[in-house]
Amino acid sequence: MTKFPMTVQGARALEEELKHLKTELRPQITQAIAEARELGDLKENAEYHAAREQQGMVEARIRDIEGRLQNAQVIDVTAIPHTGKVIFGVTVEIANVETDETVVYQIVGDDEADIKQGKLSVSSPIARALVGKEEGDVAAVKTPSGTVEYEIIEVRHV
């Protein structure tokens, strides 16, 4: 089975969500189903059907999270010696060579990616261009509007 890379923070967030679903939401839904059953005829009981539907969605999410965690290869970048090289999990500051605009991204697994929070998927074009390069190197990223070059300013293991 193929393992997928995940940061320690990403694994922790999934574990917390899983705990919340199992210990808080699951019992609430079970209670809601029990209360809806007491209302009588289940065929025309909207509360019962809504609770059962919610139960199905929560159980599917629980299975999804458990599967993701089971197939995750959790990588703690803080335990890896700093070499200045861009690898999975590092936080990298890059500058657009043309505009001098700088941005900071953390390279994370596909499940953790959130560009608004500066978390860049390891399979994204920018991350693929950066991985393996070192501080001071220039990485060329192919975009729909042409190739953009980024200089790697700093690599941090945080």
UniProtKB/TrEMBL annotation:
Residues 5-74 form the Transcription elongation factor GreA/GreB N-terminal domain. GO terms for molecular function: DNA binding; RNA polymerase binding; translation elongation factor activity. SUPFAM superfamilies: FKBP-like (SSF54534), GreA transcript cleavage protein, N-terminal domain (SSF46557). This is Transcription elongation factor GreA. The keyword Transcription regulation applies. Keywords: DNA-binding, Elongation factor, Protein biosynthesis, Transcription, Transcription regulation. InterPro entries: GreA/GreB_C_sf, TF_GreA/GreB_CS, Tscrpt_elong_fac_GreA, Tscrpt_elong_fac_GreA/B, Tscrpt_elong_fac_GreA/B_C, Tscrpt_elong_fac_GreA/B_fam, Tscrpt_elong_fac_GreA/B_N, Tscrpt_elong_fac_GreA/B_N_sf. Belongs to the GreA/GreB family. Residues 83-156 form the Transcription elongation factor GreA/GreB C-terminal domain. It comes from Azotobacter vinelandii (strain DJ / ATCC BAA-1303). GO terms for biological process: DNA-templated transcription elongation; regulation of DNA-templated transcription elongation. Coiled coil: none annotated. The lineage of its organism: Bacteria, Pseudomonadati, Pseudomonadota, Gammaproteobacteria, Pseudomonadales. Necessary for efficient RNA polymerase transcription elongation past template-encoded arresting sites. The arresting sites in DNA have the property of trapping a certain fraction of elongating RNA polymerases that pass through, resulting in locked ternary complexes. Cleavage of the nascent transcript by cleavage factors such as GreA or GreB allows the resumption of elongation from the new 3'terminus. GreA releases sequences of 2 to 3 nucleotides.
